[in-house]
């Protein structure tokens, strides 16, 4: 059965969702979004994603037509209606139909609920590589719809055998197009904070890992990453994914390190504890 989604107050199949050609999200990329996963009817870290959704919208001056409680209830309804064991939820807020092709109309709300599958275990076992690119995102603190640079670079990074692109400016790195970046040196985990999106997975990864390893929050230089013992990236879709190559430069031994492997196990357990806590709260 095809999943049901939500658009401007209605529960619909994708084929029945119609977005105006005058929508400013479509015409100008004016909008924000959030993406998170759910196990059964339990969304993972939804409160943090909703908080960031509101922050992103405020950063663009985009009105949010639903309350957080309405978002929670709508997402819950979708998860129950679709009944998937493991799925993704994507909330999109876009500037609505414009009268002049530039000025936003009333904000439109789209919530997509789709089946989800984690990356194959072999990807984590082998590690991945990233292309390097000098670039600085507009509004890095906002999770906006504007990904033109990354989309344009995708054919090139695929051609070179990479899975994504790591942005840097001068001597400092910022973030991967859809992930935050961490490094490990002499048993210390380090990640940056300024000029990058405040990743929800990043935030929870720090919380999960800090009791086992020292975690330092500071700017990251490209030369630091290239000489790191290990590098890994974090995101909703990838969780904690080891990086074994940056451009044509091998990281560490060229294989996922012990910290990266253990960090994924710790984070997986952290997510299960989070879900168990939510279920217990619902029962009580």
Structure summary:
With 284 residues, this protein is an alpha+beta fold. It has helices spanning 24-28, 46-60, 68-82, 121-126, 148-159, 200-209, 222-226, 258-283, and strands at residues 5-7, 10-12, 31-39, 42-43, 86-96, 105-115, 128-134, 164-169, 172-176, 180-185, 188-191, 215-217, 230-235, 239-246, 249-250. The strands form two sheets. Strands 7, 8, 9, 10, 11, 12, 13, 14 and 15 form a nine-stranded mixed sheet that branches.
Would you write up a description of this structure?
There is one protein chain. With 284 residues, the chain is of the alpha+beta class. It folds into 2 domains: 5-115, Aminotransferase class 4, branched-chain amino acid transferase, N-terminal domain (D-amino Acid Aminotransferase, Chain A, domain 1), CATH 3.30.470; 121-272, D-amino Acid Aminotransferase, subunit A, domain 2 (D-amino Acid Aminotransferase, Chain A, domain 2), CATH 3.20.10. 33% of the residues lie in helices and 30% in strands. The protein has 8 helices and 15 strands. It has helices at 24-28, 46-60, 68-82, 121-126, 148-159, 200-209, 222-226, 258-283; strands spanning 5-7, 10-12, 31-39, 42-43, 86-96, 105-115, 128-134, 164-169, 172-176, 180-185, 188-191, 215-217, 230-235, 239-246, 249-250. The strands form 2 sheets. Strands 7, 8, 9, 10, 11, 12, 13, 14 and 15 form a 9-stranded mixed sheet that branches. Strands 2-1-6-5-3-4 form a 6-stranded antiparallel sheet. Helix 6 packs across helix 8 (258-283). The chain is globular, with a radius of gyration of 19 Å. It catalyses: L-valine + 2-oxoglutarate = 3-methyl-2-oxobutanoate + L-glutamate; L-leucine + 2-oxoglutarate = 4-methyl-2-oxopentanoate + L-glutamate; L-isoleucine + 2-oxoglutarate = (S)-3-methyl-2-oxopentanoate + L-glutamate. GO terms for molecular function: transaminase activity. InterPro entries: Aminotrans_IV, Aminotransferase-like, BCAT-like_C, BCAT-like_N, Class-IV_PLP-Dep_Aminotrnsfr.
């Amino acid at each position: 059965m095809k999943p049901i989604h939500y658009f401007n107050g209605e529960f619909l199949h994708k084929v029945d969702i119609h977005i105006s050609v005058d929508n400013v999200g479509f015409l100008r990329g004016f909008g924000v979004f959030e993406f998170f996963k759910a196990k059964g009817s339990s969304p993972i870290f939804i409160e943090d994603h909703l908080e960031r959704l509101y922050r992103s919208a405020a950063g663009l001056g985009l009105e949010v037509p639903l309350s957080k409680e309405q978002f929670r209830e709508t997402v819950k309804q979708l998860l129950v209606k679709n009944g998937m064991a493991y799925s993704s939820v994507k909330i999109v807020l876009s500037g609505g139909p414009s009268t002049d092709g530039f000025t936003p109309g009333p904000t439109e709300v789209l919530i997509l609920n789709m089946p989800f599958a984690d990356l194959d275990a072999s990807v984590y076992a082998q590690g991945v590589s990233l292309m390097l690119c000098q670039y600085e995102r507009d509004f890095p603190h906002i999770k906006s719809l504007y990904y033109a640079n990354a989309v344009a670079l995708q054919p090139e990074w695929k051609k070179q055998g990479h899975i994504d692109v790591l942005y840097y400016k001068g001597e400092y790195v910022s973030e991967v197009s859809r992930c935050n970046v961490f490094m490990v040196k002499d048993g210390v985990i380090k990640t940056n904070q300024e000029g990058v999106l405040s990743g929800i997975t990043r935030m929870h990864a720090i919380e999960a890992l800090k009791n086992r390893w020292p975690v330092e929050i500071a700017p990251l230089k490209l030369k630091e990453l290239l000489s790191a013992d290990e590098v890994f990236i974090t995101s909703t879709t990838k969780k904690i994914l080891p990086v074994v190559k940056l451009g044509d430069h091998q990281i560490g031994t060229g294989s996922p390190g012990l910290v990266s492997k253990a960090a994924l196990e710790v984070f997986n357990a952290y997510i299960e504890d989070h879900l168990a806590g939510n279920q217990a709260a619902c029962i009580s």
